[in-house]
Amino acid sequence: MTNLFASYMRTLVPYGVALVLTGTGWLGIPVDSTTAAGAVSLGLGAAYYGVFRGLEWVGERLRWRPLQLAAGALLGWARPPEYKPAAAGTAEGLAAMQRVLGSDRDRR
């Protein structure tokens, strides 16, 4: 559950920041229409995520924990979610299901 929450936070925070920056006009970008405001917000959100995710990646590669944590915190969660690898039985079960479905298809 924590991984799901972290992934939501790291997705929503950049776009929330972009909406605030666009709505307040803090960046000085004149936006006259709702459509333009939406486009500017999406662009800002993507740029915000890209910059701070890139800094987080650099922090990981340089093993510089303060940069990694600061960039992650500005994304909404200090560390990226960590997903467990699929269980070994999952691949075997999938292969068995494909064999069953494949043999069913051959009978038609």
List the helices and strands and how they pair.
Blueprint: H1 2-24, H2 34-61, H3 65-74, H4 88-107
Explained architecture:
This protein has 108 residues and is mainly alpha-helical. It is 75% helix and 0% strand. It has helices spanning 2-24, 34-61, 65-74, 88-107. Helix 1 (2-24) packs across helix 2 (34-61) and helix 2 (34-61) packs antiparallel against helix 3. The longest helix has 28 residues, at 34-61.
Percentage of helical residues? Answer: over 70%
Note the total helix count. Answer: 4
Order of helices and strands: HHHH
Structural class: mainly alpha
Large-scale geometry: flat
Radius of gyration: 21 Å
End-to-end span in angstroms? 43 Å
The biggest beta sheet, please?
none
Fraction of residues in β-strands: under 5%
User: How would you state the average pLDDT, rounded?
Assistant: 81
User: How many DSSP-defined strands?
Assistant: 0
| pLDDT < 50 stretches | none
